[in-house]
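User: Hey, my collaborator sent me this sequence without any context and asked if I could get a structure. I don't really work with proteins. Can you help?
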Amino acid sequence: MIIIKNDMEIEYMRRAGKVVRDTLAMLEEVVKPGITTGKLDRIAEDYIRKQGAVPSFKGYYGFPSSICTSINEEVVHGIPSNSRVLNEGDIISVDCGAILDNYNGDAARTFAVGSISSEAQKLIEVTRESFFKGAERAKVGNRLTDISSAVQKYAESFGFSVVREYVGHGIGRDMHEDPEVPNYGREGRGPKLTHGMVLAIEPMINLGDQYVETQSNGWTVVTKDGKLSAHYENTVAILNEGPEILTLG
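Assistant: No problem. I've predicted the 3D structure and written it out in structure-token form, which is a compact way to encode the shape of the chain:
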């Protein structure tokens, strides 16, 4: 069931979204060669809690950390560790969620670690822009897969591939609500978009082919071919006046 939010609920989600946005902006400043992903996790949790919010990922189905840190060929759900050090030339996607006043915000960014290859930089840029191509279609009266199709067409036009096993989602009091939001598919399908729907739109784009697998820790998803992957996500409210990105300043 898709849960429609009223104006007050969307305001609560703006506040939660700001915590997530500001956490990711702070992490971008400290992502440098030599820092550990465990350190990033501690910085994020400390900041989120100081805002009066709670990290929504920590303990979620047993996930041990406050953020997900996925490096290079890791697609999503990478677990921070004090022994995992970022190196020059890496890329890292950081997925962050926070609960404030019982409502969730959720967003992800992929950052360069020092100087990276032009190929990696292009992947990051295309993944980010594919989100915006999708978000442009998050308008009242459109269909859900209008978003999906726009993401896929843009990413694939650069020769990249779209992960299919993992998708975006509705969001509100629960981090994952209906509907699922695929990053691929034919336009004109799925539920009609209406005022008050809130979606986490999150392209996961691979440099190589689309296939992924989960590592033995039960969480970390990696590309099967070992090639780079990037992730970009925002929480988007669908309003009569147009889409509002709640996790973007």
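In plain terms: The CA atoms of residues 37 and 80 lie 5 Å apart. You can pass these tokens on to your collaborator as they are.
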